[in-house]
Amino acid sequence: MANKVADSISREEYFYGHKACAGCGGSLAVRAALKVLGPNAVSVLPAGCMSAVGFNFPQLCFSNNSIISTFAGTASMLTGVEAGLRARGYKDFTAVGFAGDGGTADIGIQALSGAIDRNDNIIYICYDNEAYMNTGIQKSGLTPFGAKTTTTPAGANIHGNIRPKKNMFEIAAAHDIPYAATASVGYIYDFIQKVQKASQIQGTKYIHVIAPCPTGWGVAPDATVDIAKEVVDCGLWYLAEYENGTFRLNHKPKEFTDVSAYLKKQGRFRHLTDDDIQIITASRDKKWEFINKNFEL
Amino acid sequence: MSKKFLSGNEAFAEGIRLARPQVISAYPITPQTIVVERLSEMVEDGSLSAEYVHVESEHSALSCAIGASAAGARAFTATSSQGLLYMAECLYYAAGGRFPIVMMNADRSTALPWNIYGDQRDSLSQLDSGWIQSYAENAQEALDLALMSYKIAEDKRVQTPYMANLDGFVLTHTYETVDIPARGQADKFLPPYETDNRIDFDSPKNMAFSAGPDTNCIFKYKEHKGLLAAAEVITETEKEFAEIFGRKYTGLTENYRTEDAEYIIVTLGSIAGLCRETADKLRENGVKAGVVRIRYMRPFPNKEIADVLRNVKAYAVLEKDISFGNEGTVFTNVNSALKKAGVDVKGYNFIGGLGGRNISGADIGNIYTSIANGTESVNFIGIGGGDNGK
Amino acid sequence: MRPYIREKKDFSFSEVPENTSFEAGYLTTVNSGWRSIRPVISAAKCVGCEQCYLYCPDGVISIKDGKAVIDYDFCKGCGICAKICKIKAIEMEAERK
């Protein structure tokens, strides 16, 4: 029984033997993307989960050329790698970055914005697990409203994180980037196809992939893919692309699954009251009003 | 060889053109900006073939240069003051990764209070970052160091990034006539960059990795040895430079009338010229004055300093720096060199020129007088006002 | 090909590289000790759809002769494969110590 998607990507494993937690969504995103990009991918990873689990001399888990950047420097190092290889006459390679939500939306956003502004020929993939997981689950700019983290405790007075997620996809698009996309490891075929597409486009490409962290989200290791699918199905995340000045929705759920069910499965949301969930649902509906109005289908 | 009337910044840019960097990451900051402006013009007019990257910060400037170096390319960037401090994380990163990037730093005061003029607190605060650090005195030396820097940094024994410091405004913006080496000779002197410390599609690498307690110390020791090895390579490089271009340099330090000197000022950068003039005048009056100019703060000239100060009656360290709560950093380094060598002579520290404050010939004359008569251990020049800080 | 276990694990002073650059895909330790449960594939049931292969975060599943097989040296026992398998050809069993 042939699987066309599996056949369309490399059979090699480029991210192997790493020490990520069992069921790590980030490692799935990195693995899948590198199988798309193949042996001539040069990956740049900032300080963070994927570098911490993959680069401990002498245990080195990337079989393609890979390098750790400073936390803030994913995009700027990508720029340098790309420019350096080009200056040395190389043409057939892909400079790809894998940074987490903190590395992308917080400390790395300036360098990322600079790279998009220059339209450097790189792919930047943000694996979003919605908190600083490597340091032990602290709030980032992409931690969703209501989530309990170790710096947004859920108490009687404050119910976890009081701010919504930044929209990095639209921030990237606002640069008029050649290609931006959202994805989820719960829809791996869609993600793979987007990485394939990005690899064919000249200029800066940004892909924002939801990659659950079982440890930080408070779900079982085997729940990663299911919960990454459910976040799309309940409408709290969406699969979309931005290209040639146009937003396109790739997947429109016929009707949303229950937001409350999605939240209550996760330790980080278990404290939420009905009122909190009402706020989250209302904000989802408002976002979808915008999507339905502004995104092509 | 041709002659041009150039500022320190422009002379340095000319040297960089001859060194043929393949990637230049550029971000403006006074008083360095002219360097990246000139380089952009050279790229535009085709006289320099390089990828010129307009980065959005100094942190990215060096991060980009590290990426380019990891790709096996010769990389250049330039900065100053706040910019140097903003990229500080990347300084250690470049050194630890053994990426032989060259960066010009226009020495400038650091805020607060804000000040764009020259002192050396910016670069001296980064002595521990693992970079070679040179301090030029004039535009010709700046140009020559720009060309020599890559040869030193890229040497297999060294593999260490190189920070070429030029005093802000006093050197970066002051014009003089400089000799510009011929391109063919420069190419002969500095061959293209070759390294194994790079991305390699035939034999892929994992780079800039973590190393735990079992091996971390070994990596750091090798980094230290690499920087120490620069001393020997600097000497060799200057010898070869002199053979090709006819200009001689004197390694980590430059001594002036030190052979019989009883009183020596140890200093660095562009103020050395005025120190020499002052020493000459004092010698006319029978004072045996001399000057040691430190050309390289890293690797530090421990032996040279100890040798030259061994027989003096007293020495002064004149520096545009203060390590708050202690003394000038150069003074600390000089004293350590003497202590290690068992040299016990009286030494005094003079902190001057902060935030671009002028140091006059009279100030320097006073330093020689003070150390002959004995003074406080750490002295500030030019605090001003009638009470002079009291 | 995938990175594989090397015999050389300890590095003397002279063997430690001069810079932070080393052979890609160099593994010295396995991950099998992490498991409390292990996926067991029923070759009879497996149809080789490769769903488990695509979704495995550790890349330990490959297809041989049309059937999924697992590299137990590096499987952490997360159980994603068992959940993703629509025909229930993978069972999670207690790890035998």
Spell out the key features of this protein:
heterotrimer; A: 297 residues; alpha/beta; 8-stranded mixed sheet; two-stranded antiparallel ribbon; 12 helices; 10 strands; globular; B: 390 residues; Rossmann fold; 7-stranded mixed sheet; 6-stranded mixed sheet
Q: What name does CATH use for the topology of the largest domain in chain B?
A: Rossmann fold
Computed over alpha carbons, the radius of gyration of chain C is 17 Å
Radius of gyration of chain B using CA atoms only: 21 Å
* Strand order, sheet with most strands of chain B: 3-2-4-5-7-6-14
Q: What is this structure's SSE topology?
A:
The complex is a heterotrimer of chains A (297), B (390) and C (97).
Chain A: H1 4-8, H2 25-37, E1 41-46, H3 49-54, E2 55-57, E3 59-60, E4 66-69, H4 74-87, E5 94-100, H5 101-106, H6 109-118, E6 122-128, H7 168-173, E7 179-184, H8 188-199, E8 205-210, H9 214-217, H10 224-233, E9 240-243, E10 246-249, H11 259-264, H12 274-294
Parallel strand pairs in A: 1-4, 1-5, 5-6, 6-8, 7-8
Antiparallel strand pairs in A: 2-3, 7-9, 9-10
Chain B: E1 2-7, H1 8-19, E2 23-26, H2 33-44, E3 51-54, H3 58-70, E4 75-80, H4 81-86, H5 88-96, E5 102-107, H6 121-124, E6 132-135, H7 139-154, E7 162-167, E8 175-180, H8 183-189, E9 205-207, E10 210-211, H9 216-245, E11 253-256, E12 263-268, H10 272-284, E13 289-294, E14 296-298, H11 302-309, E15 314-319, H12 329-341, E16 346-351, H13 361-373, E17 378-380
Parallel strand pairs in B: 2-3, 2-4, 4-5, 5-7, 6-7, 12-13, 12-15, 15-16, 16-17
Antiparallel strand pairs in B: 1-8, 6-14, 11-13
Chain C: E1 4-5, E2 21-23, E3 26-27, E4 37-41, H1 51-55, E5 61-64, E6 67-70, H2 80-84, E7 90-94
Parallel strand pairs in C: 1-3
Antiparallel strand pairs in C: 4-7, 5-6
